[in-house]
Amino acid sequence: MQSHAPTPSIPVPAIAGCPDGRPTDACETRPIMRFRCGTLNENWYIAALSRQVTAKKPFASTIMEEPIVLFRGADGRATALIDRCLHRNAALSKGDLFDGCIGCPYHGWTYNAEGELVIVPSESPEKRAREGRRLERFLVREQDGFVWVYLGTPERAAEKEPFRFPHAGEEGWRSYVMLTPFDGDVTDLVENFMDVPHTAFVHSGWFRKAANVKRAEATIERTADAVHVEYFQPDDSIGFSKWLLNPDGRVMTHTDRFFMPNLTRVDYMWGERRGFVITSQITPITPERAMVYTAITFRFGVFNPLARWLLPPYTRTVIQQDVRIMEVQTGNLRRFGARRFSGTAADEIHRAIESLRDHAAAGEVGPPPEPRSTRIEFWM
Length: 380
Ligand code: FES
Ligand SMILES: [Fe+2]
Hints:
The chain is of the alpha+beta class. It has seven helices and 18 strands. The chain has helices at about 25, 155, 185-195, 200, 240-245, 305-335, 350-360; strands at about 45-50, 60-65, 65-70, 80, 95-100, 100-105, 110, 115-120, 135-145, 145-150, 175-185, 215-220, 225-230, 250-260, 265-270, 275-285, 290-300, 370-380. An eight-stranded antiparallel sheet has the order 11-17-16-15-14-13-12-18. Strands 1-10-9-4-3-2 form a six-stranded antiparallel sheet, with no helix packed on it. The longest helix is centred in the last third of the chain and has 33 residues, at about 305-335. The chain is globular, with a radius of gyration of 24 Å. The protein starts with about 25 loop residues before the first helix and ends with a strand.
């Protein structure tokens, strides 16, 4: 019988694993965000668009300061491994893909899609599993054109589902996705995406006009893992071609929702059948930097093809205005260090979001924030 154990000239010590048998990375606590975020890592985060992950070229992504390499194995399924070679720590994302495996660019150590080390060229070109040597592999789900990765404890992943993007694939609805790198931590970005008063200033003339500020009311409902805001301002309108958005003069309804820990959904509807929804999933890269995946989903009947043509430049302009204001805010938070905010009634939304995120960031110790419903009055 053929032996599968050629003796290496210099014996390499085995790499220690976690007590439960997982690779070392899975249980080590490096001082990175992933391990210093309470339970915020117990969540599916978007690591890439499906089309960014191929069998031809590795794709590098970072979630909570954890470098991840994504590619497709021989069966076409997306895989996500820690982007660090076991040998001398080179980034595997700079290497090559072949036969469903990834080869390190430095000395050619090769790993299969399971993360197992299968070729060590200095030992022999033979492909075989080197027992006990494998990279941390993350749980992956592919849904709605996104590749979602779970960075928390695998046992808890079953309790959570990747978020379902509203109206994805539904008849009559069209959708496109924008990727935007932002400065800001997730809480501040969520607040920006759910914030109405800034629209008259940051997006002046594009969205709402400062000169048109009117009294409005809203209800804010905080549940165990979400914040739902409903606005009451019958004469509110947003600055896009009225004939496209609302040709029959219906009242616009506007709701904003936050889903723990990193998603916002903003709905503008004119009746049941016409409207658009902006869903933003925020993937934290570092505590001050994020990749935002925004889905613009709309239904304008016969005007759908025209909207698909007109909306992207408009939404890109609006998002870039937010990128700039978040850069300003983040830069100043950095300069002043401590976070200290004062607020108004309209900031009740921010306080509700913060209370849920802060509770998770503190590891969910102590009682969770109570479900609560508030009605506020403000000018927008
Ligand atoms: S660092 Fe990857 S093979 Fe040496
Ligand atoms: Fe904005």
